[in-house]
Structures are given as structure tokens and as C-alpha cells.
Amino acid sequence: xxxxxxxxxxxxxxxxxxxxxxxxxxxxxxxxxxxxxxxxxxxxxxxxxxxxxxxxxxxxxxxxxxxxxxxxxxxxxxxxxxxxxxxxxxxxxxxxxxxxxxxxxxxxxxxxxxxxxxxxxxxxxxxxxxxxxxxxxxxxxxxxxxxxxxxxxxxxxxxxxxxxxxxxxxxxxxxxxxxxxxxxxxxxxxxxxxxxxxxxxxxxxxxxxxxxxxxxxxxxxxxxxxxxxxxxxxxxxxxxxxxxxxxxxxxxxxxxxxxxxxxxxxxxx
Amino acid sequence: xxxxxxxxxxxxxxxxxxxxxxxxxxxxxxxxxxxxxxxxxxxxxxxxxxxxxxxxxxxxxxxxxxxxxxxxxxxxxxxxxxxxxxxxxxxxxxxxxxxxxxxxxxxxxxxxxxxxxxxxxxxxxxxxxxxxxxxxxxxxxxxxxxxxxxxxxxxxxxxxxxxxxxxxxxxxxxxxxxxxxxxxxxxxxxxxxxxxxxxxxxx
Lengths: 269, 203
What we know:
The structure holds two protein chains of two kinds. Chain A has helices at about 15-30, 45-50, 60-65, 70-75, 100-115, 125-135, 145-160, 175-180, 190-195, 205-215, 225-240, 255-260, and strands at about 5-10, 35-40, 75, 85, 115-120, 140-145, 170-175, 200-205. Chain A has a single domain (about 5-260), classed as P-loop containing nucleotide triphosphate hydrolases (Rossmann fold, 3-Layer(aba) Sandwich), CATH 3.40.50. In chain A, strand 3 (about 75) and strand 4 (about 85) form a beta hairpin. The model of chain A has no long low-confidence stretch (mean pLDDT about 90). In chain A, helix 1 packs across helix 11 and helix 5 runs parallel beside helix 6. The N and C termini of chain A lie far apart (about 40 Å). Chain A is α/β, with parallel strands linked by helices. Chain A is built from twelve helices and eight strands. The longest helix of chain A is centred in the middle third of the chain and has 16 residues, at about 145-160. Chain B is of the alpha/beta class. Chain B has two domains: about 5-75, Cell-division inhibitor MinC, N-terminal domain (Transcription Regulator spoIIAA), CATH 3.30.750.50; about 90-200, Pectate Lyase C-like (3 Solenoid). In chain B, strands 5-7-9-11-14-15 form a six-stranded mixed β-sheet. A five-stranded mixed β-sheet of chain B has the order 6-8-10-12-13, with no helix packed on it. A four-stranded mixed β-sheet of chain B has the order 1-2-3-4. In chain B, a hairpin with a 3-residue loop joins strand 1 and strand 2 (about 15-20). In chain B, helix 1 (about 25-40) runs parallel beside helix 2. Chain B starts with 5 loop residues before the first strand and ends in a 5-residue tail after the last strand. At the A-B interface, helix 7 of A face loops of B.
């Protein structure tokens, strides 16, 4: 019997889908868990694109909810990663196409087969959000270090706490340590001060995310990606290990370091 | 020969003191004192419920009664039946104690004083007819004296509201957001302007 985790945020564009894709892939790849990713963003589906699986969609979540097909028919097995599956959303419908009760049943059914059911929630607090949280046991809230994102995240925490979710976890995404140092960006402590929930991890701003999204290859599998490393650490924490937060200083290498790197006497970071 | 100014009834919970309509408070005091004196130890530890047919009991009278009763080892309870105790300043007597942080989008609206053991995050609203005390950081909107009480105050361990309102006056924090004080402060109305002063507990 697995657990259903909803990944939500309130604010749009902060990295819910990216986080869902990377955590799910990481759990399957490094944690050897059986994972299904559920895209609850009906009408504006993205999880399939980020995972590179859009060409293989035949049936979707709405079809399953309406009984047009069996659960197994809609699940897409990712051929690159063992034990990783995707339940795509519908693109030609909208969020009124399923009810919270249907989502709850779907999650219950998926729980029987999988260790982790990760539900990618749409932005907002209305029907789409309500559908996404209906079947969930736990919640992960994603935010960026911006006042507006934190404000929305706080609203979501309030709504989740009122629905009985205990101890939601926080992911801070797209942190830029150089801006934090200059005082131009909120730092981690400021955000925890307001949100007051447990921190799951911090993901630095990383160009490789853009590339990985376009290619449909989650960054968590990429050894050279800093964001990927952050996601790998988060996977470890989800599995119970105590991993310290990455230091994210991007110190410009000194001249001699650069010289050594040029001659191959020092590894490039 | 009128009715007795005060009736004392025994109930299974304790005793109820009922103040009659035309009672003179001095008489009331005397009678209660005598009655309690005669059954001194019998009443000790008991609960007392106060009802007033006069419609109201002034704060002073209430305090005097409370004193007498405490001397006899009894505690005065707040009555909650139709003929309830009415204070001259009803909007201060009731207190709402919230032992949590108020999050964005949550609105607390109360007829009385609001005390929050936690923070009030930006995007939250606290509206009270009485005072507002935040034992934490007030980062949202607070409106004290919401029905026009100009003596209402807003106090917080860290006063950093998005907006402050007392009675009819609305005010916002200074534009310069640097170096906000990290000690407790109180906001009150002085000459129709909201003034913020440090709250120094170490006198």
C-alpha cells in the first residue's frame, strides 16, 4: 500500500510539474520504488511533455474516471526508467471534467499498485486544486523566493491545514544565491519564518532545467546538473535519510584555478 | 415593602445570585456579605453565577462582588443565560484566544479582544471590536476598535503590518522598510493619527 503525495503551490509557474517529474523519476531510479505520476492539470497538461511521453498518450485520467477505459490502459510505462509510470491528464477537456470523489477513487486504486503516487496539481485554489488534493495523504508545497509566490504558498498551507493535512513539506525552487547575497532575493530563513513548515529541499536556478524540459529528460538523472543534485538529495530525504542542504555558492574560479583547469590539472566544477 | 434586592439560589452547580430590578448596590453588598458570613465554610470553593435584572452591572460593582466572593473562597463565573451580565464596555470583555498562526487568506472577525499566540501572515485579516494582541509577528492587516472604539490598541511582538486600522482611521507602514524594530510595539490613536510606541515590559 503506497502513499499519495500531492505537489501543489497556489502560484503558477513555480516548478510543480518539474518537481513532480524529477522526484518521481528519482524515486524510481535511485530509490527503486514503483512510482506513478498523475497529471491533475486537466486542460493544460504538461507532465507528459516534461517526461517526454506525450506521443504515447491514448487514454487519460478523464477516460478512467468516466469508465471509458480500464486503469491499466491509461497508464504509460516509461521505457527509460524501471517502475515509473505516468497517468496523463486530458487536454481537450477542463477541470470540471472530474470530481474530487472520482480523483479520490483513482488515487485509492493506484495506491494498491504503487509505492508512490505523485499528483501534479494545477495552480490556483479552485476545482483543479480541490481535485488534486482529494485523494492525497501528504502534500509538498513548491514556491520560489518571491513575495507573491510565498503569499500564495501561505494561503495553500492554510487551506491544507484546514483540510487535515499534517506537516506539509516545502520545496524552494529557483534560488539564486548571488541575488540572495546581494540582498535582492528573499533568503531561506525569511521564507521559513513566514511559512513555518518543514523544508524538504532547495533547488538552485539551473539552465539545465530548461534544456531537460525541452528534451523530455528529467534533470534528476543528469549528474552534471545542480538542480538534478538537489532533487536527488530530496529523494534521499523522502526515503528517510538525513542529507544536509547543498551549499550553493558559485564562486568564480581564480586565475590560477582557471589555468590549472585549462591544463587538466584541476577538475572543472 | 418591596422585594428583596437580591436573591440567592442554590443549584447543583453552585449558587446563583440574582440582582433585582430596583436594587441598591449597597444593600446588595450587605445582604450577600451577611448571608455568606452565616454559612461561611459551607460555600467555600463553590461557583457563583451572577444574573442582573437591572440590565447591567457596572465594572466597579462587579469588582466589589468579586472581592467579597473571593474572600469567602468562591469564584464568580460568567453567566450565559438571557439576563446576562452586561458591562458598560461590552466590546472588551470577551476574549478570543487563537493558539495558531493566522495564514494568508484567513479572516478573524470577533466582537471583543483578539489574542493570537502565533503570527498573522501577510494576506490575513484580523478584525476586532476591542483590542488586538499578537504574540508573534503581525504581518497582515489588523483592525481594532472596528465599531468605533478609538481607545482600542494593536500590539505585537513584531509589528510589521501591511495595514493598520483603529476605529475609522487607516494607516500603513513607512515606505522605508529597512530596520524595522525587533522589539514589541503598541499602536494607538492619538489625535486621529495612529501612533506606534515601543512596549517596554521592563519598567
